[in-house]
Amino acid sequence: MKKEIGILMLLSIFTLSGCDLDKSTTVTQEPVTASNEQVTTRSEQKNGTNLIEASDDEKVKLYALNEAKNEIKGVILDIDGKQKTFDWEIPNTGTKPQLFYTDLTNDSKEEAVIIIQTGRGTGLDNYDIHVINVEDFSEIKVQSYEDIVANEIKSNVVKNDDGTLTITAKAQGKESKFDYDFDPAPDFNQDELAFGGVVVYALENQRIKLNIPGSVGVSPVYVVDFNITYKFDSAKNEFIVDQIETIPIEK
Fold first, then answer.
1. Please, is 251 exposed, middle or buried when counting C-beta atoms within 10 Å of its C-beta (0-12, 13-18, 19+)?
2. CA 94, CA 209: separation in Å to the nearest integer?
3. Tell me: the pLDDT tens digits for 120-139?
4. At 151, which helix (H) or strand (E)?
5. Is 189 strand, coil or helix?
6. What angle do CA 92, 116, 133 make, to 5 degrees?
7. Which of 79, 107, 108, 207 is deepest in the core (most CB within 10 A)?
8. 117 and 126 in contact (C-beta within 8 Å)?
9. What end-to-end distance do the CA atoms of the chain give, in Å?
10. Which residues of 184-209 are buried (b: 16+ CB within 10 A; e: fewer)?
11. How many CB atoms within 10 Å of residue 178?
């Protein structure tokens, strides 16, 4: 009888040990944090709860990742529930980003478009644009204004003896020439237009638009508007210049 009781006790201990062994093999998965290399779902993202802005249809949302006193350093881009972090910086003093969900590449698939004001002030108004493939969150290149100025626009500024300026601007083979009534900086040596003070992107009729006025003087004084329309080059997978309109600015 004692022997039978001992066997039953051993079997009970072995059974309990087996239960503990089963429990020890259970694995708990921790949520994955989004990074520049990884796309996650919204439920997995615990940071960046401060919504910055959303597109009108709420397909595209932008959350702050790290907020400093004067700017947001890093964002979480949410496209229809999927998320990825980007190291974009957004000054708190600027206007809110503009977000769109639209087809810019004419492939019947939408892209996410984010336009961010990066600087503003007296004579200064700068924006960046980001076009994101919604399937893999890769960024589609948009030809920079620096590249456009270097390769598509030629200009010449001549200081006249009467204190006026003669300005010549050539873009895509079309030349515009006009006189400007005064020289804002007679002692400043300038033989061509300056760019970079104003760089404004916009979206119009599913086309990317860019305004980059040319300036004279140190302050600067803007004298010529260059209104640029982009087109998508599928071979390059890039948005490049399609048309440039040159319009003198009246003082």
1. exposed
2. 20
3. 998 899 999 999 999 999 99
4. helix 145-152
5. coil
6. 135
7. 79
8. yes
9. 113
10. beeeeebebbbbebbbbbebeeeebe
11. 13
